[in-house]
Amino acid sequence: xxxxxxxxxxxxxxxxxxxxxxxxxxxxxxxxxxxxxxxxxxxxxxxxxxxxxxxxxxxxxxxxxxxxxxxxxxxxxxxxxxxxxxxxxxxxxxxxxxxxxxxxxxxxxxxxxxxxxxxxxxxxxxxxxxxxxxxxxxxxxxxxxxxxxxxxxxxxxxxxxxxxxxxxxxxxxxxxxxxxxxxxxxxxxxxxxxxxxxxxxxxxxxxxxxxxxxxxxxxxxxxxxxxxxxxxxxxxxxxxxxxxxxxxxxxxxxxxxxxxxxxxxxxxxxxxxxxxxxxxxxxxxx
Length: 286
Known about the structure:
Number of strands: 8
Shape: globular
Largest sheet: 8 strands, mixed
CATH class: Alpha Beta
CATH topology: Rossmann fold
């Protein structure tokens, strides 16, 4: 298990057992629950600024999906969004988490939002960062990406060269100065060898491979409008961009939309500004 600077990530480690291995999570503070769900190639580390501050008033819980962060990296676990979602459902039920404020980003959206759709009465408010929840198999850009990922070159890049955290994560930053060497290493370290990168590759293949799963929930996503929702959007994101935001606007009735001049990782590039937006949102009454 890799070490992380306690000044950056000053939390106690907790573990939840699944049939495939242990899921690492952090559980800080008391009060209303905020559940943070990360995407790829990240882990709970991306939410550290929020948890340090919000845990003074709230109970902040952030998991590392199996295969990510400090969780186990079992070879026999198929790391699709569907399977990560089932782990999340089991985690929430077994910890008896009630009336959740849900925060999702990237693949965390297609993992976490299906829980909200299926269990809307257990949701209080929802914070959505750059993500999606609709079919991808007819998206020309996704088709190109999927073709590369499923090629011999794509597999080599992901498994042998650790391409996702080393290259793609960096590309996700608009302001590259925000990605210091120390922070970048904190995203690279969880994937130290070829076997540990299997789940990065699994979820990359799921970008199009789980298209029907996404669409099945998109058709039911109107139910999310029963809850207060805010979108905090990195307007300079090269991956999940303006067209994705437009799609969300077509489905959600919320007028709480904040576009920040940053890339895919809003949490890293605009931590204070986005934190203040979240704080006001959680404290407000509709």
